[in-house]
UniProtKB/TrEMBL annotation:
Pfam families: Glyco_trans_1_4 (PF13692), Glyco_trans_4_4 (PF13579). It comes from Asanoa hainanensis. Keywords: Glycosyltransferase, Transferase. InterPro entries: Glyco_trans_4-like_N, Glycosyltransferase_grp1. CDD domains: GT4_PimA-like. This is Glycosyltransferase involved in cell wall bisynthesis. PANTHER family: SULFOQUINOVOSYL TRANSFERASE SQD2 (PTHR45947), TRANSFERASE (PTHR45947:SF13). Gene3D superfamilies: Glycogen Phosphorylase B. The keyword Transferase applies. GO terms for biological process: carbohydrate derivative biosynthetic process. GO terms for molecular function: glycosyltransferase activity. Residues 27-201 form the Glycosyltransferase subfamily 4-like N-terminal domain.
């Protein structure tokens, strides 16, 4: 089986030396015997482009000529069985679907966000959930609110791309939806349910869980409003100092000063700063419950997968993919201060009982052996459908 994996990476958003979910998936496929043909672009490349190449960037979300030429060469040279597309923006373009189909190559896309409809891909604007462009032929609110990179001009181009490529997305042979919520999003967009398979990401097995620690851990690469940092701290402060054990917060970003302020004022809040991979593992070992409190429809927060793999139950909000991830291995509540505050003592009391369920959920649903087999079966079915 030969598979082209196409993805536009945002390497600048990754901690130094850390693999992305797509990188991990490529490694998992290769280990399973798939001949992976990487077709990867990085937004970091833009800074080193020639003036002529940069001049074409504004149209790349609609049509990226170099990417199409490069894909044609790869297909002719290697004769792959499937094209697996992840993120096409901005250097690949959804036009890659049309190019693949011209050569009779079936296309599978993993949907990581809501960008079939939403220019930012987040369904989140100005501190709250936004669906203003859903159901519109032309997503003009995205232009008015400068939803793509804070630019009216770039938002207009992205809005145009979303309109031009509506038939492109509807021609994709199969979709991998990371959660049931993404499947519902695609059905609402007009994709037939039988072309959608719910298949989450997998993360490597860290090994047997350490004994359960104490208190709560919130860790994020970005301490920002949509991650629920303010919600979390407001809810925590509804309880007397020390009532629910320690709260450890890791990460960095715009709301770091708020976290530092609360940590300075309370003895039960500790700010850990940005952690590397060993630091995250140590923090997971020290905790009893992991927190995932987004106030937007976060598609499939990796922090939840890491918590489950480490045998830690999760207390989260009932938005996006969090309920799907948590299942019976934790608790989900509305993204409201009172609801979250009421859940802290419940989670603290039930953590030990939920911990074995957390590891079991990881092993049954998010382990690489389980997820990769599911993916290989989908590749085989797609390749067969085109022969």
């Amino acid at each position: 089986m030969k598979v082209v994996v196409a993805h536009n990476r945002y390497r600048e958003a990754q901690p130094s030396g850390e693999n992305t979910i797509v990188d991990l998936e490529i490694d998992q496929l290769a280990a399973a015997g798939v001949e992976v043909l990487p077709f990867l672009r990085s937004s970091d490349e833009i800074a080193t482009m020639s003036p002529a190449a940069k001049a074409l960037l504004p149209i790349s979300p609609i049509y990226a000529p170099k990417a199409q030429r490069d894909l044609e060469e790869l297909i002719r040279a290697h004769r792959p069985d499937v094209l697996h597309l992840h993120n096409p923006y901005p250097l690949i373009s959804p036009w890659i679907v049309r190019t693949a189909h011209r050569f009779g190559l079936p296309v599978l896309q993993t949907v990581h966000n809501y960008r079939q409809v939403c220019a930012s891909g987040l369904y989140f604007r100005d501190g709250g959930i936004c669906h203003d462009c859903r159901g519109r032929t032309l997503p003009l609110p995205a232009v008015r609110h400068r939803c793509y990179r804070g630019s009216a001009a770039q938002s207009a181009l992205m809005a145009t791309a979303l309109t031009v490529h509506r038939p492109t997305w509807r021609s994709v042979d199969g979709y991998l939806a990371l959660t049931d919520a993404i499947k519902d999003h695609l059905i609402g967009y007009g994709i037939a349910p039988e072309r959608i398979t719910v298949k989450p990401n997998a993360i490597p097995d860290p090994g047997p869980p350490a004994p359960l620690g104490t208190g709560f851990l919130f860790f994020s690469g970005r301490l920002s409003e949509e991650k629920g940092v303010r919600l979390l701290l407001d809810a925590w402060q509804r309880h007397p100092d020390g009532a629910n054990g320690p709260l450890r917060v890791a990460g960095d970003g715009d709301l770091r000063p708020l976290v530092e302020s609360v940590a300075a004022a309370r003895g039960d809040v500790e700010f850990l700063g940005r952690l590397d991979r060993p630091g995250i593992a140590a923090a997971l070992s020290a905790t009893a419950v992991v927190l995932a409190t987004p106030t937007w429809h976060d598609v499939l927060p990796t922090v939840v997968l890491e918590a489950l793999a480490a045998g830690r139950p999760v207390l989260g909000t009932n938005l996006g993919g969090v309920p799907y991830e948590v299942g019976d291995a934790g608790w989900v509540v509305p993204p409201e201060v009172d609801a979250l505050a009421a859940a802290f003592p419940v989670a603290a009391a039930e953590a030990a009982a939920k911990a074995p369920l957390a590891r079991l959920r990881y092993e049954r649903t998010f382990h690489p052996d389980v997820v990769t087999k599911q993916q290989l079966d989908i590749y085989t079915a797609l390749a067969s459908s085109r022969t």
